[in-house]
Amino acid sequence: MYHIIIWGLGADYYNLYNLIKFEEMKGNIEIAAAVSKDDFRTTVDGYPVISAYELCNYRFDYIVVTSSKYYDDIVKEAIQLDIEGVSDSRF
To answer: Where are the beta strands (DSSP E) in 1-91?
Structure first.
């Protein structure tokens, strides 16, 4: 089972919601947390909502970026935060 961080809680996340739940039900993934800049939410769909700076407090195997609109910004932020395993040769 992979421990996943979801990064981005906009329309793309909700388009992928059923797929995420299906993979959870099959036992393939477990969502550790969701990263969002929205300070007003503490949970979404039962997942804790955290800031990017809190990622160091969570164990995860992969980050799934669920925002096509802000993908580049999210990758840049992850690189700036020096999150292990995050790289993109475009930046």
So the answer is: 2-7, 29-35, 43-44, 47-50, 62-65
